[in-house]
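Format notes (please read before filing issues)

Several people have asked whether sequences and structure tokens are stored in separate files. They are not. Every record keeps both together, in the order shown below: the sequence lines, then the token lines. Line labels are part of the format and must not be stripped during preprocessing.
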Amino acid sequence: MIKKQLLSVALSTIALAASAQWTLSGGHVGDRQFTEKSSGVYELSLPGDTIYGRFLLKNGDNIRYGATNTYVCGGVAYTLASEGDSLMMASSIASPVLTLDTNAGTLTASGDVQPLYLFGNFKGNYYKIYKDVSPEAYYEGNGIYKATDVQMHGNDLTVCQIVSPPSLIGVASGDFIAPYRFSAVERTLKWDEPAAMEPCVRLAEKNFSLPEYFALIDVTINMVDVTFEATPVKLFNFDLEKFYAIGSNISNESATSRWTDTGCTTGLLMDRTEEDGVITFSLSNVAIRSTATADSEDPRGEIEFASNLGSWDEIYSGYCWGWNITTDTLTLNTNNVAAAVLRDTGKWTAPYSLPVGKYDISVTVREKAAMQFRAVQTSTSAVEAVKADEVDPNVPIEWYDLDGRRIAEPVKNGVFLRRQGQRTQKVWIFSRN
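Then the structure lines:
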């Protein structure tokens, strides 16, 4: 819940002209004039607006007043300088009321202090900066923001302001611009030790890196000192028992997994083992199916991993691991092995694509490494689901070669695929001559 706080900003001992017309100036609000409420006291109310990012104060003589220290924080004295840089909000304030007291040399802003947001490798959110999924660090006063029980699914993260209008940081595309993202001065954090933050430089971003992966953490952001601190609640917080391989049309001896526009209700349950702190999910004889066996779906050989089955909302509410946004096509090395890093990207999860064939697959989870996916191709044949479906004898028979090409009824010796309804068989044809 967003907390209402007071922003008390103390002006320096520089002489402020009480008779001047004071103006708040910023690209997001334009020039807004204060109204004199009493001798030397001015007020500016912006109901329905949000103040964020950079701004400055100026008087009627166009003398600019800026900052000597870094970020304007709720309830923290802030010193101005006559020729300082622009002021910078620590986070946005909605519907602010700003009172400038030139007698006391203070600026006070009240309103709804908005949270800061974490951006990085989290459960259900791999580097997405969206209000509905990004972990929020709420303001607690004195320049301190806190986020609790943040579930990491990797080890990289950083801090962002989400400002209004959203297009300023490209929320629609998950993009961002400086100075609304903060990054690391030193790349690797130490637990419970504050590390300095600095504004991001576009195309030269540096993320914070935690000592462990999959940690459950609390985060403290101090926007007075401009530091970031992470505290582990549980170092290796990965207790998942059931993990399914799901795909556009994949199968093994017990099931066939097909996803649709509404979800995926059948998955291939993976075997789970744990030894020396390493968790491995594995599955043998997984068939990445071809055109010949691919019902009405586009047979792209796609595969990803999930803890839940059902509608896509139900799948995304659990763990959903794959790649980020778009399908990544994997190639096999000389040992017929494909390997990749898996990301839990929630509703943006995209699958990996593998060549047609049979595979032994595994997913490995370690405390100090990213989740790894490995697929070993054991056969290049187009293969059918071993568990046969009931067949309607009235459904026409279709024939395919082993490359998945549709053919007429076989006229020569060889091995062919015979499909009738949901059932596909590999058939050896021998002539009688």
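For reference, the curators noted about this record: Residues 11 and 104 are 8 Å apart (CA to CA). The chain has a mean pLDDT of 80.
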